[in-house]
Amino acid sequence: MDDAISSAVLAGRGRDAEIFGVIDLTTKTEARYVTLSLGHAIQFVANASVLGYDVRGAMVLYGLPGKPSLRKWDCDRLWAQYGGALLQP
Predict the structure, then answer these.
(1) How confident is the model over 38-86, as pLDDT tens digits?
(2) Between the CA of residue 5 and those of 23, 68, 71, 88, what are the distances in Å?
(3) β-pair type (59-62, 53-54)
(4) Among 47, 48, 58, 66, which is disulfide-ready with 53 (CB 3.0 to 4.6 Å)?
């Protein structure tokens, strides 16, 4: 992930995002989420493994169709880099 994408994500942190590919390890089913802000979606995916979710296949979709999606490692890096700033309006 380059700095331009990181900057775009930070600027768009309040946009709607959807999370796919998160497995609840208790029920062994894919967890469903209502639309979240991009910042909250990144926070969740970056921290979900300690809450009992398998996020190896997680993907955060945001913006217009054709925009890049974020994978688990992208969320980890963005959360480590920006942290709580992703949650601010």
Answers:
(1) 999 999 999 999 999 999 999 999 987 777 689 999 999 999 999 989 9
(2) 27, 9, 13, 18
(3) unpaired
(4) 48
Q: Taking the model in full, what pTM does it have?
A: 0.88
State the alpha helices, DSSP H only, in 3-84: 3-11, 38-47, 72-82
Q: Which residues contact 63 (CB under 8 A, 6 or more apart)?
A: 12, 15
Task: For residues 32 and 16, give the distance between their C-alpha atoms in angstroms, rounded to a whole number.
Answer: 15
- Helix, strand, coil percentages (3-state) for the chain, rounded to 5, are 45, 20, 35
Q: Is the dihedral of CA 32, 35, 40, 42 positive or negative?
A: positive
Sort 2 into a burial class: Cβ within 10 Å, 0-12 / 13-18 / 19+. exposed
